[in-house]
Amino acid sequence: MDFISILSIFVMACFVGYYVVWSVTPALHTPLMAVTNAISSVIIVGALVASAAGALGGSATSKWLGLVAVALASVNIFGGFAVTARMLAMYKKKDRPAAK
C-alpha cells in the first residue's frame, strides 16, 4: 500500500474513534475503558515484538519506536485503570454514621 492509502485509513480511524467515544453515555464509559485497556495490552505485545526484531538484527528505528510504543501504552493502561477505579468509586454507597 502506498503512503496516501495508509494515511487516509489512519485519518478515517481517528474520526470514527472520536465520534464513537464521545457518543457513549456515561453509564457505558467504564466498560469502554476496560476494552481500551485490553487493546493497549495488545499494543504492548506488538511493541515488544517490534523491539525484539530491532534488537535481533533489525533496524534501530524499529527498536526505538517499539520502546516508545511500550512506554506510551503503559501510561495509557495505567491511566485507564485509574480512571476506571475512580468512576467505579462514584457508584459505591457512602458510609453514613449511625443515628443515635
TrEMBL record:
Q: What kind of membrane protein is this, topologically?
A: Multi-pass membrane protein
Q: NAD(P) transhydrogenase alpha subunit C-terminal domain location, by residue? A: 7-93
For this entry, the protein name equals proton-translocating NAD(P)(+) transhydrogenase
Keywords in alphabetical order, please.
Cell inner membrane, Cell membrane, Membrane, NAD, NADP, Translocase, Transmembrane, Transmembrane helix
The subcellular localization recorded is: Cell inner membrane
The first-level EC class reads: translocase
EC annotation?
Answer: 7.1.1.1
Give the chief site where it resides: membrane
